[in-house]
Here is the input.
Amino acid sequence: MTTITSRGTVRIDTEACKGCELCITACPPRVLTMGSDLNRAGFHSPLLEPGCTGCAACLFVCPDFCFEVYRYDQPVVTEVAS
Amino acid sequence: MPTLDTSTEPSGARRVGDLTPDLLLTGEHHLCPGCGEPLALRCLLDTITDLEVTTQTIGVVGIGCYTAFTTSIDVDLVQALHGRAPSVATGIKRMRPDAVVFTLQGDGDMVNEGLQEVLHTAARGEAVTCVLLNNGVFGETGGHMTATTVLGQRTKNTIDGREAEYHGYPILIGDLISRLEGASYVARGSVHNAGAVARTKKMVRRALESQRRGDGFSFVEVLTMCPTGWFIPTGESPEYLHETLGAVHVMGELKVDGRVKTTDELHTENVARQREVEARLAAGGLDG
Here is the structure.
């Protein structure tokens, strides 16, 4: 097992997402990936993996205002299979 | 790799960024996936909120995809005819000198349909701020070429790229306006990445501050993505914007306090700023 520290996190309004994927390439720690589930409008939306820094780059580039960005008071540690 | 819950508000965390700008009644809109215009709109609306001028702001909106936001922007707005927004803004500013007056126009609206309006408004030194959303296509009417489309750029009627011999050369509107005596602040931003969006927001702020000081005409051009009009995947559009439009319409503050900067100066500044932004993103955020 290895651990990954998240300094921040995001809340994603998946129903507002149009699946443009701008956030995927904009994310500096590369913790956003496209999910396979479809929303009501028929678009894929992003998923968050551990390691978010709360930098808000996703919020700056999202044309559909889907992101709300948070920074943890104490970083959160997630255990992942190595 | 496990995925985390992003549907609820986390505990033990402070919110640093909101979903929708405060001055937008709803974040829902009908613009295409990957459109750059909502990003530029966020820069403008957040700046109006930050400067605490919401109740004295009057906007004039031209004709384009962004016109769809007139029903959701929570600021007093006037809808102008194609390209006539700067003239309408002139009238508003002269009748209401205390108002903060901006125009929101696209490149088709400003540079094709009403080029003389913005040039004369700038030359007269009217204390209004014009915001241009420049993507090099008439997005709303199907994605055909505008006067700002750069050589080699794909649009619906320049499918192999714009050719100088057949289509002529692009108009660099920011450079043109910066040479006019009445223009006090001229800048060109872009929304191809988070750093560029943050920098564009600062440009909008300086333009509105310049208007409030009564310095004269202020102008912010924002390069935006139009993947639908360019026929490219949404994920590739920011890079295409930066490398195609951004190479010709060079980003930066073209005129500050009456001094016009050269393209070489802008290039040098851009390289330095990109390094700075990358370092700040790696350190954890752009808002610090």
